[in-house]
Structure formats: structure tokens, C-alpha cells
Amino acid sequence: TVRILKERNVPDASKAYRLVPIGFVELDQVRGFDRTALRLKHGIPVDEPVIYFATAARPRLHARGLAAAYFGAVHPRLRVGGLAQRLWGRRYPDFEYLATYHDIVACVHRFARRHGARLIAKTRAKHQDPPFVRRYVDALVPDGEFYPFVTLELMHLADLYVGLPTASAIEAAFVGRRMVHVMPHPLEVYESP
Questions:
Q1: What's residue 40's pLDDT?
Q2: I want to staple 53 with a disulfide (CB 3.0 to 4.6 A). Which of 10, 39, 121, 156 is the partner?
Q3: 81 DSSP 8-state letter
Q4: What pTM value is reported for the model?
């Protein structure tokens, strides 16, 4: 901190020596969570396996047209006919197939059913979830308020967290939850060109 202040020509950086990291306020609330109580609060049987799925906001992808195709209705040729490779393959050689958001949600739904698990999804208004999301999940829970943070509650009560690349990985690791991040596109698509 002091180094950064000096680099930015802050005349008196001496007060920075008194800064003490105290934690991550959002994660501090986990200390008071009780898994059984949270399951009861959200109407989930205590002994039932639960998969928590975080719905996706529209990502900022660097391949032109990809976000629209990913969230929209995709012509079958785009998926299996090699059109995805022709459109985006020159820049992203690993791009062989376009897995859509619908494909991912449907796959997580099938996985949950195969394992006898309840599929709970958390959403935010900004995500503008397509109607199929509600059809595939057992419960679609809105974000609610910051305290208690619904994301952390659902993560804590679940047995598995599945989502798209997001900072929620930090929360899942903190809570000690197993997680799977689905990467529907080559990694380079997410990074700055």
C-alpha cells in the first residue's frame, strides 16, 4: 500500500502503515451459517442432495456475435456444421462447437436428475434469465439483500456448486464447497485480445 501511494506521489504515506486488513466483510457472515437451518429456511429437505447453479449475466466476449449466439436461438448448422469453427476458428483455433447457455442449463438439469439432486438456481434481475432456466430448475431464488447474502446461503447449503466463470469461485472455496466452472468457449475468448 505504501509503495502504491509513493508511486502516485501521495505526499504523506505514513498513515498507510496503520492500515490493518480485517477480513472480507461479505464472507465474515458465513461464520454464523447453519446448514440445516438454511435448508429449512429455503424449504429444502435436510437429507436431499442439492446442486446450486448460479445463473449467468450476459458475458463480455471478445468474439463478435458470440454472446448473441450463446444466449439466443442458434441455427443447428452453427453448432454441428462447422460454422462456429469458420466464424471464430481463425482467431480461436480451439473453437470447434458452440455450446449455448440452454445446452449448459439442460446438461446441469440432467446431471441433477441422474443423481437424484435438487437443482437450485440463484438469479439477479440483470441476468434477464431466459424462460428455459425456470423450466429446468427446481427453484429460482432471487438475490435478495446483501446481508444475509443469498449466494452464500445457497452455496453453504448445497453439496455442489456449478456455474460459469465468475468470482463466485472465491466464495465457493471459502465456504468449502466443491465447484465446477463450465467453460463453454476457449479461454482466450474471455480474455482481452
A1: 94
A2: 121
A3: S
A4: 0.77
Residue type, 35: R
Cα(42)–Cα(28) distance, integer angstroms = 21
d(CA 152, CA 163): 14
If you search the block for the grid coordinates 454464523, which residue do you land on? Answer: 32
pLDDT, residue 135, reads: 93
Q: Provide the pLDDT for residue 2.
A: 67
Q: Which amino acid is at 46?
A: V
What is the DSSP secondary structure assignment for residue 67, as one 8-state letter?
H
DSSP string for residues in 82-137: SHHHHHHTTT-TT------HHHHHHHHHHHHHHTT-EEEEEE-GGG---HHHHHH-
Return the closest-CA partner of residue 151 out of 31, 30, 60, 43: 30
What is the pLDDT, as a whole number, of residue 88?
Answer: 74
* Mean pLDDT computed over 113-122: 95
